[in-house]
Amino acid sequence: MEITKIMTKKPITITEEKTIRDAAKLMCDNRVSALPVLNRDGDVVGIITESDFVGKEVEIPHAMAKLKQAFGHNLNFTQLEKTYERIKEVRVGEVMSRNVKSLTEETDLEGYIQFMIEKHIKRVPVIKDNKLVGIVTRKDIIKSFL
What we know:
- This protein is of the alpha/beta class.
- The protein is built from seven helices and seven strands; from the N terminus they run E-E-H-E-E-H-H-H-H-E-H-E-E-H.
- The protein has one domain: Roll (CBS-domain), CATH 3.10.580.
- The strands form two sheets. A four-stranded mixed sheet has the order 1-7-6-5. It has a three-stranded mixed sheet with strand order 2-3-4.
- The longest helix is centred in the middle third of the chain and has 12 residues, at 60-71.
- The radius of gyration is 18 Å and the shape is elongated.
């Protein structure tokens, strides 16, 4: 079976200039755990996942200092809130994963599953002529059994 039969066509995407607040809203509104990131030409330049929100350090030295104060005796809610607001305005391009693994439409399901296992990834963009045509996730594989 070709992955085109199970992939999500026209996946929800975001551009690298948008903020992580924008990405969070898109992900929550559409109930997806990742967004392919496109440049102005529509090329895939990265992917932002739920893990990028909690696993990357963006302005963390300053934010962590404030968190330490919050859990200590120097509680400053106003400053902590300002720091949090600044973090939400960080650009997607600053936190996304850049080394995106992708496949073509010709990849068969067995090849896709093997690729996911070898690369330890949960989702793969599907590319045709350097443009995004879909995304295949573990959930798509499970749905193929229905």
